[in-house]
Design brief:
The protein is an alpha/beta fold and 252 residues long. The protein has 11 helices and 8 strands. The chain has 2 domains: 115 residues, 3-Layer(aba) Sandwich (Rossmann fold); 93 residues, Rossmann fold, CATH 3.40.50.1860. 54% of the residues lie in helices and 13% in strands. Helix 2 crosses helix 11 and helix 6 packs across helix 11. InterPro entries: Asp/Glu/hydantoin_racemase, Asp/Glu_race, Asp/Glu_racemase_AS_2, Asp_race.
């Protein structure tokens, strides 16, 4: 039987641990697009509330950039300018009190390096979250869907390979249509059944090429298709990245 003194000591220990715990603040580089940034905001807050209860919510700072400015940089191939814009915003988030920085988009991880070089707090890389989840399921060859930049550029594919994952991508014409659907539909909140059918048929073709799972490598794709649409395991990058953020702010 525990004595009254022992119970009091236990209470003091618990209270001290509660006092010592302080949720970290995450800085989100968002707006690329607003649709996916909204999903990050909701997913992170819901998970923090589930973990802490009551009216708890995450400590978030968000810099929502003008997506059109970033899109024009992409079209012009001016990644240096895009990197400068995001690096400056990341520094502002750090100065405002962010303990870590999250870039809420797959494509713009192409300019992760200038962001990392401009801050002194941790950068939560989306590829770390994705690769860890894929390996946890014992898979290594997966389909990659995303913007044309993500599917065709070495920054993303090589990043996966470096982390032990082999990506399988669609042919060039299919990539163009996947890209068009993202920018002309999903980024502005337009969800069309024919586009969903196109994505699912693409997944079937990549499965025939040996894909064991599917990376939804654009943070908007999860708005169009989800796990219920396929027997292959889906790796929704926005959700996995959000989970990574939650672990960070709760110091797991």
């Amino acid at each position: 039987m525990v004595s009254i003194t022992g119970i009091i000591e236990i209470i003091h220990i618990i209270n001290d641990k509660v006092k010592d715990f302080e949720m970290k603040t995450i800085g989100i580089l968002g707006g690329m697009s607003p649709e996916s940034t909204a999903s990050y905001y909701l997913e992170i807050n819901r998970a923090v509330n589930l973990a802490l209860g009551g009216n708890a919510s995450a400590k978030l700072l968000i810099s929502s950039v003008d997506f059109e400015e970033i899109v024009q940089c992409q079209k012009a191939g001016d990644w240096q300018k895009a990197g400068k814009i995001l690096a400056e915003q990341a520094k502002l988030l750090e100065q405002a009190g962010a303990d870590g920085i999250l870039l809420a988009t797959n494509t713009m991880h192409k300019v992760a390096r200038p962001i990392i070089d401009n801050i002194s707090v941790p950068f939560l890389h989306i590829l770390d979250a994705v690769a860890d989840s894929i390996k946890a399921k014992g898979l290594n060859k997966v389909a990659l869907l995303g913007t044309a930049f993500t599917m065709s550029d070495n920054f993303y594919r090589d990043g996966l390979i470096e982390r032990g994952i082999t990506p399988v991508v669609p042919d060039e014409e299919t990539q163009k249509e996947i890209h068009r659907i993202i920018f002309e539909e999903l980024c502005i909140g337009k969800i069309l059944p024919q586009s969903k059918t196109f994505y699912l048929k693409t997944i079937e073709k990549l499965t025939a090429l040996g894909a064991e799972g599917v990376i939804l490598g654009c943070t908007e794709i999860g708005l169009l298709i989800n796990q219920a649409d396929s027997t292959l395991p889906f790796f929704d990058t926005a959700l996995l990245h959000s989970e990574m953020a939650v672990d960070f702010v709760l110091e797991k």
